[in-house]
Write a structure and sequence with these properties.
- By secondary structure, this protein is of the alpha+beta class.
- The chain folds into two domains: 131 residues, no CATH class; 196 residues, no CATH class.
- The protein contains ten helices and 13 strands.
- The longest helix has 32 residues.
- It is globular and about 80 Å long.
- The two termini are 25 Å apart.
């Protein structure tokens, strides 16, 4: 945490505001040497609350950059050049953020010249909070980093966000589709089958990660509803729920995250997946997402096909050979493009819905 020249109560105010996906923080501060280019780049604020980050820094060109980052939105930056505010010993700052946009406002306190405004755009790099509480910068201007992971002492302290994992899944599929072989249709079938496996697994990984990372964004799920849905009445009667809650506290994780860790919530299971978002966050796949029921039915079908491919053979040519289906035989190469589109649509809608969630209090 780096907050020079800001009173303690303002630090606490910013920490509290940062716990919410939408916020405004206004303060005045005196930064010695802020108009001296020779001092180089310097941090004015560097703060994390849960998985959300606010960074305010001044660079050598007298640009003040306001960075806001969360796993759901990624990292954005709003910039204001303060050259015309020289002559002020104190500056007025206004920071605003939401899932849709961020803004930076700066004005002079003694020499009033009107407010300068910077509108957010995608940053050249990502800021992320590790499990150890440290803030990590991934990439830089002109430097793209894929699949960034940080391990300390063998422990993974920084991995991919839910949406980053899904984007890597799509990139891997595009690479796989470029492959060629003299084996002809058999090769095409194998590639298509592997794409179905990758898509279904990518969906599972995204839903699991997003469910958990929302907690770090200050969106707390309904633990009572999750408990009733994913623990039996008998388990609750004998006190297993209280045992789990105690274990979660000892591990420093939430009760919901422990249910995921113990696979009481299995995101590879369609019913578990949709019920976890329904009971935990009030997101109903069939009602709130605006996705056609046909798409939801097809996603379930692809998940079932994954099971067959993995447990039967990656060389299956007819995926529904044991189904009494009026639609006739389904060949993997024929359904791949629609499968990709439908998974993209559903995950996009889930992600959009999670960005609209707000803390209960």
């Amino acid at each position: 945490m780096h907050l020079p020249s800001i009173p303690r109560e303002k630090k606490e105010e910013l920490l509290k505001a940062l716990q919410r996906p939408e916020g405004t923080f206004i303060f005045t501060a005196k930064y010695v040497g802020i108009f001296e280019k020779a001092k180089g780049k310097g941090l004015l604020i560097d703060l994390a609350s849960g998985n959300r980050i606010i960074r305010l820094e001044r660079d050598e060109s007298l640009d003040v950059n306001f960075y806001y980052s969360s796993p759901g939105t990624g990292t954005r930056v709003a910039t204001v050049n303060i050259s015309e505010l020289e002559g002020n010993t104190k500056l007025w700052f206004g920071l605003t953020w939401s899932p849709q946009e961020i803004n930076l406002y700066i004005g002079g306190v003694e020499v009033k010249t009107g407010l300068l405004r910077g509108i957010g755009k995608k940053s050249d790099f990502e800021l992320r909070v590790g499990k150890n509480g440290s803030i990590y910068q991934i990439g830089d201007k002109g430097v793209k980093v894929l699949g960034a992971r940080v391990r300390i002492g063998g422990e993974l302290v920084l991995g991919l966000t839910a949406i980053e994992s899904w984007n890597e899944t799509l990139e891997a599929i595009q690479i796989l589709k470029t492959g060629k072989s003299p084996k002809g249709y058999v090769f095409e079938a194998i590639v298509a089958n592997m794409i179905i496996v990758i898509l279904s697994t990518g969906f599972e990984v995204y839903c699991k990660k997003r469910f958990c990372e929302l907690i770090g964004e200050g969106i707390i799920p309904n633990y009572d509803e999750l408990e009733k849905k994913f623990l039996s009445n008998q388990e609750i009667e004998v006190g297993l729920n209280e045992i789990f809650k105690k274990e979660a506290k000892e591990k420093g994780v939430s009760f919901a995250e422990l249910l995921v860790e113990k696979r009481r919530i299995d995101f590879g299971n369609w019913d578990h997946c949709k019920n976890s978002y329904n009971k935990g966050y009030g997101i109903r796949f069939g009602i709130d997402l605006g996705v056609d029921n046909r798409v939801l039915e097809n996603i379930q079908k692809y998940i079932n096909y994954r099971h067959r491919i993995v447990h039967a053979s990656p060389m299956l040519t007819v995926l529904n050979e044991d189904d009494d289906s009026p639609r006739g035989p389904e060949f993997a190469p024929k359904i791949i493009e629609s499968a990709i589109e439908e998974f993209i649509e559903l995950i996009g809608k889930i992600h959009e819905a999670t960005l609209k969630l707000r803390p209960k209090n």
